[in-house]
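testing teh design pipeline on a random one, pls ignore if ur not involved
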């Protein structure tokens, strides 16, 4: 009899433990960021929010998801998410269909208050420029600050119990990014020759903030290496107009830039767009990347 009672108490205890753990899980908030930069910004905002888990949909090393196709693993992540934070500006064309089919999910479009830039591609076939808008607003710390405030407000609305924490964290982070933006804004004043050439238009937002002038974008289509004819054309332009710098990204092959610099002796600098990065980025990673970009330009533009 006693052993039966003991067994029953044990079962009751186990049931309570299980119930408790499912309760905790039910209160957890699963936030899914579609792309790496949005993941970085959202993670920073939610760092102080207990029970909020931010996951990244596509692999961290993907970069801009041009030709990306959702995997079954991605679909499972989408199904488990309560809040999905998107880049917006046409970056998520690869998952338009999946987003439409999501039920009971809050979608936060982080680009809602971004000051947009038109795509610089001459014949942009790339899908995420299909609206004519440059989707890489995250390369500007000031636009990233706007994205952070939008994310903070969206999270506060979707999960009112942590509204205060989210809004406070978003505001503090946005202020840090805006301070970084002032460092970027001072870059252009270091040089009389403000013309720069970009390999890919990802850094166009950063260039605008820096007060530099985008003379040309080498890669007409993000997914395709520039043709020999295109390289010849840009080489001719560079010889004629002598831009201060050729700017590439570690996310793209340096080859076209190496060819150009060999022909023109115009220096090359690689600026990280933060479109991809380490899988488990440390706190402050986005700021670290942008500070390094500033530092590189401070070094290069000082010599002009
Ligand atoms: Zn891109």
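output:
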């Amino acid at each position: 009899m006693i052993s039966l009672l003991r067994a029953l108490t044990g079962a009751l205890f186990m049931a309570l433990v299980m119930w408790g753990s499912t309760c905790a899980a039910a209160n957890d908030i699963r936030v899914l960021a579609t792309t790496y930069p949005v993941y970085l910004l959202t993670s920073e905002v939610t760092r102080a929010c207990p029970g909020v888990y931010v996951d990244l949909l596509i692999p961290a090393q993907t970069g801009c998801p041009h030709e990306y196709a959702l995997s079954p693993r991605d679909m499972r992540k989408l199904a488990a998410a309560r809040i999905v934070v998107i880049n917006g500006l046409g970056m998520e064309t690869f998952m338009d269909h999946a987003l439409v089919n999501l039920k009971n999910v809050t979608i936060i479009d982080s680009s809602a208050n971004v000051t947009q830039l038109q795509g610089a591609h001459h014949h942009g076939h790339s899908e995420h420029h299909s609206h004519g808008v440059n989707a890489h607003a995250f390369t500007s710390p000031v636009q990233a600050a706007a994205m952070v405030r939008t994310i903070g407000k969206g999270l506060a609305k979707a999960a009112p119990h942590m509204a205060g924490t989210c809004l406070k964290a978003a505001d503090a982070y946005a202020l840090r990014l805006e301070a970084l933006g002032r460092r970027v804004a001072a870059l252009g004043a270091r040089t009389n020759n403000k013309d720069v050439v970009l390999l890919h238009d990802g850094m166009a937002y950063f260039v605008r903030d820096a007060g530099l002038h985008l003379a040309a974008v080498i890669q007409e289509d993000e997914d395709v290496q520039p043709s020999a004819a295109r390289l010849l054309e840009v080489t001719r332009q560079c010889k004629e107009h002598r831009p201060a710098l050729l700017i590439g990204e570690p996310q793209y092959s340096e080859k076209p830039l190496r060819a150009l610099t060999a022909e023109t002796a115009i220096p090359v600098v690689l600026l990280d767009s933060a479109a991809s990065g380490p899988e488990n980025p440390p706190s402050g990673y986005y700021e670290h990347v942008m500070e390094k970009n500033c530092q590189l330009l401070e070094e290069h533009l000082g010599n002009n």
